[in-house]
Amino acid sequence: MVGWRGTSRRGGGKMDGVMADQRPSARYGYRSLGAEPGFRVRLAGAAASKLQAGMFSFALLYAVSAGRSYGVAALVVAVAALGGIAAPFRGRLLDRFGDRRVLWPILTVHVGSVTALSVNEGLNGPVLATFGSALVANVSMPPVGVLSRVMWRRMSQPQNVRSALALDAVLTDLAFVFGPALVGLLTETVSPIAGLVVSSGSSALATVLLLRAQAGRGPVRDPSRGPERGAGGARHWAGPLVLAPLRWLLLVACLFSAALHAVQIALPAAAGRSAGAALVSVLSVGSIVGGLVVGALRGRWVPRLPVLLLGLALACVALAVVGRLPLGLLVAGCLLVGLFIGPTFVALYGDAGDLAPSGTEAETQSWTGAAIQLGAAVGAAAGAAAIEGWAPLAAVGVAAVLALSGFGAGLRVVRAQRHRSRSRLDGSRKNPPPAERDEAGRLSAVTNNLDVPPAVDPGGRGVSARIKG
């Protein structure tokens, strides 16, 4: 390969073009991502999809609590959260029937249920109707957040995918910072129902923009990552969960989310409500900074998932140590913890996309999101138990243990990925693709017709046999 450019004159120009195309691009990261066609539409669609997630729960809480007790409103939010169980099913529908055929019917049901809830609350109707419409609204929540991550992987250049996922994670952090504040502002200045209206409107806007961003571009089927199938060649009922590396990755996502929410539970208990809320915002600031940094790094400098979780565990230990020291050190400790949050989200969703079998991209991302939600519940419960049983900072110690457990599970993910890649490589050698078999056949035909004496190869070395064409 080294001598192609200097030695080959005939057809050299064509070969030079091929070799030039294989060189890595000099541009990478956010600048290269921003120069891609349609980037602004993708960015607007992703931002709208994150705003929906950052607003819905708070909008539902404020809308119901305006006419009922706060305890009833909180219970409505808890019942509605059960609708998150449907997320993997919605992802499977996207993979099977396509984005447009799934999103519009789901959006119609979602808007209808939100409208019914708003009317029922306005008329002070039966509380069972509120519970039912809230549950249906969350079950029918358009999966635009999942679709935005799938869109970045479909539409971005390979060298820009990590930057795109980092940008997506930053948008999520911003939405959870500004979304609740926007709901509070709308509740005070417009109406308690206004937050739900804006949340549903952001879902509709995200649907329109994400479909426009992918117009004429369907899911890319990668033949090297065929769908996982069971006996008889039928698609396995468990979908992507049949893959052991993915199951380990979901465990990592659950443990990471549990550690994060244990810290969030501990901060208000340790520093007071007002200061605790500010410290949680510091976590978000650190997460945004960390996400932006990891999206700007070259590939060889990007830390792997186990390294990030180990760093998070050590940062939690440092936060527990400085928790009794002056507030400035506590802020620095929260910022340090936050620096590992954004990059870990990027690594989780990136690895999930890499592991997803062809045709299960949306479902795989949905399972990852479901594992994160489960981890949030586990972390909140573990943190509350530690606070009640010991002290507020004990919840930070629990977070460190959870992150360290995630580090161990992350090592299993890496080992399983290597084993799976090695198995696929061995399989491809035994059963090469048709194009490679045809090329090998043509080369064999050429060599079999060479004028070579028996028992001597073209270089004059002895051979055991000669096959005539």
UniProtKB/TrEMBL annotation:
Record region (Disordered): 1-20, 421-469
Membrane-spanning intervals of the chain: 41-64, 70-89, 101-119, 131-152, 164-187, 193-211, 248-271, 277-298, 305-323, 329-349, 370-387, 393-414
Composition skew (Basic and acidic residues), residue ranges: 423-441
Gene Ontology MF term list: transmembrane transporter activity
Domain of life: Bacteria
Keyword tags: Membrane, Transmembrane, Transmembrane helix
Signal peptide, first to last residue: none
Name of the protein described by the UniProt record: Major facilitator superfamily MFS_1
Organism: Salinispora tropica (strain ATCC BAA-916 / DSM 44818 / JCM 13857 / NBRC 105044 / CNB-440)
